[in-house]
Amino acid sequence: MKKITLLFILTIACSQLGVFADSSYSVQPYPTPPGIVCEVTGVDYSEDGTLYICTRRGDVWAQKNGDWKRFAYGLHEPMGLLAGPSFAIVSQRPELTRLVDEDEDGTADRYETICDQIAMEANFHQYNYGLVKGKIAGNLYGILSCSGLSKPDGSPASANGFSPIPYRMWSYQITPSGEFRPWSSGLRTANGIGKSPQGELFAADNQGDWVATSMLHHLEEGDFHGHPAALRWDQDFPYPKDPESAPIGLLEKMRKPPAVHFPHGELANSPGSPVWDTTDGKFGPFAGQMFIGDIVHPRIMRVALEKVNGQYQGACFSFYHAEGLKAGICRLAFSSAGELIIGRAGEGNWGRGLPGSGLQKIAYSGTPPFEIHRIELQSGGFLFHFTQPINQSIKLDPEKFGVQSYHYPYGPNYGSPKTDIRRIIPANIEHTANGNAIRMIVPNLQKRKVYQFNLPQIQDVAGGTLRNSIAFYTLNELVKN
């Protein structure tokens, strides 16, 4: 009875402190600048460990040695930030701006235009998402969202994608000389951009017209990601005046398939920008993997990519979806201590950006979680790698594994349900010799499918079950025999 009472008291105390935990990770509050509506749209650390944030309402704040100070103000809805020694670069609606603290008193003295070749007009949805550095020193990359499509009767714009001015719905490059260069097209409204440890660019587009479900794209120069409205600004496209009237077969042939689909409602409704775990184990066993938050759901997702026939594809999982984590997750960053810093924002009827609630963090306890680490496509099936050795005495009965495949159709509709849903009974499932993987033989694997797996019966050697048992693998390319 005393143990139960003590546990109850500790639970209440942690709740009052705003700390919620499982055995491996805990969500904790992060102090925000006092007295402001802290809608965080950019998060980054400078080389000296100063935390910089920008807010949708036009401020940049810096926290050094625990103290907040307003670094800059008066910006036009900045949606991304890069921090440097005594300066920050922000992507605001009309331009990219370098904010310089010349006298090093903690406040920017000079607002310097890097590039103002970004077209904009009066529309609620004209975001300038960013911002990452390129492989070549001085190059910067961001994304211009669609505009809301204004209705003929003058009523408020809808959320359907429209590209009224160049280069809406494109990712872009800014060269060291400040030149704007369109990079890839067809992104409806990819809220943010991320760079992998290998220097490659990725962005997560939001479900909507021509986007059946939210999805992760690999951005290479010249790519078309699927929304034809952007092709209005492609001089080589044969239907420039009305690109959405182009034959669907032509668009499908041009389209680079997404690396990962995030099933709508189950994982994401409106994902933010991706970050990679580069903490060298300070955040657990996920080095090199990707983490993405969601504006609508209080959820952090994890992505484990692989390359097959030169194209990215792979698995996504729920990473953290528990009491204490709040919705509106827009930007993420890892601290030098290995904590995942969460920047939250909201707008209009989403209403996620509340006073004093714009920052949280997730900390690793040091207790390794039992998770599906990654899924490796093989000829005829999949190899599931786990973070801990699994109990090999448990019989792996294919009938008890929840496996299904489905498809997301490509077309102009606003979102789409799963189609061609098929339950699959694996032909065989077996343990591997190293003890921390299983091999699943799946007959008739098909390209352009999502394979969903539920593995609740898998246990570690101590009898523990998986922290997250459901996985989704986007299969674009098959392994060549």
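Second entry:
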Amino acid sequence: MIRLMIVDDEPSIGTMLEKALGRSKDFKIEYYDNPINALSRFRAGAYDGVLLDIMMPHKDGLSVLEEIKTKDPECVVIMMTAYSTLDKVLHSHKVGADHYLLKPFDSLAAVEKKVRELVHERH
């Protein structure tokens, strides 16, 4: 069972990912549209991975990434964004992001495959 947290302020993206990945009984998913609420629920060892949007109101994904990696360095974090800049990619990897996905996604199957691959490598 892969315990996955999805954090994206766009409900259309978050619920789409939650439904698509939730079709597999291999995933236990929690979706949050507010990064502050997500961080209040995050505990070391509670999640195998996090799909995390970079651009969000209230708190940006890079600062959320830093807090997640401080609490649980082994948690796989995959950053997502529609606004790719080399600076943000480099910073997210420096802080500990495991991968970077551009929205819109090529396919939801590719997202699922990448999550499985990275979580299984780590755990």
